[in-house]
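Give me structure tokens for this 365-residue protein.
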Amino acid sequence: MALHLREERLLGDGDRVVVAFSGGPDSTALLHALAALAAGPGPRLRLVAAHLDHGLRPGSAEDARAARAAARALGVPFRAGKARGLRPAGGGSPEAAARRARYDFLARVARATGARAVALAHHRGDRVETVLHRLLQGGNLRGLAGIPHRRPLPGAPGCVVVRPLLRAGRDAILAYLRDRGIPWSEDPTNRGEGNARARLRSTVLPALLAAYPAAEESLLRLEGLAREASDLLDRDLRAVLRGVRARGGAAALPRAAFKGRSEEGVRRLLGGLLSLLPGARREPALAAVRRVLDALGIGDGRPRRVPLGGGAEAEVGPERVRVRAGVRPGAGGRSGAILSSGRTSRPRSRRPRGPRRSRRPSSRP
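Here you go.
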């Protein structure tokens, strides 16, 4: 792990690091390994263990007490929190709600402690599972690039999320704990099949590996290729957006900048324009990207408006593609707009009328 920390420049001497500590085998190995590095060869880290009790199952309070005792035995300061009233947002899953609560809690601890990094215990197996999950969901190139080694932590300016165990397999993690006699807790929900991700972990992935023993290496190779391609697209995006500024609540690029680009390339350009607008989502969904491609392919010189979701829209004009945020649904509909169904609305043409037929004289008096 020390080599990984150096090569990826994840942590350095003197960094205060919040370790997300559930008490399970992965986070237990991470906390012990970082504490051993801090006390020995370095980097000299100042650690804080942070545990959130989600309150989603019986026994979670006991897990919190065990986590506190484990951190105290290592001489690591401990911060605890308890999530209350977790409710899925926008029809999401309970797992997604728990994840949001967990990251909010970690951001609060990072701000309170002045931490430079929050360390998470995702490992090699999580990488494989993530790539397969996103592949089966029809994920885009950025999604297939897998779990990043580091990224900014929302809600904690100047703090990053780091994952020091991404190169370690689960077997190696368990061997590390057993060899040192380190106890850990098991979350029984990880062995269940209550959601798609758990079913993938417990049923789909083992069956896939039984039929295709090299599947894990193949998925990790796909992850690496996707990351390399994604990085190239990001560099291209930075070059295209150089000098582009938002004006009047909109940002635009020449229509020619979209010519010859794939769905992923168009998605990146639209996402890049949206990133210049405050409050806009990062990238549009695939269906919206395809509607923009439809509008670009019509080429009759009339501007067309394409909803991008999240209150944003793109206006595909004869010379430029302009993106706006904060658009009210149904506002300002123009003729020639691309409808959300993907159909193109065109001005209704009236059929030429022939000469009016004279009415037959009435036989009534």
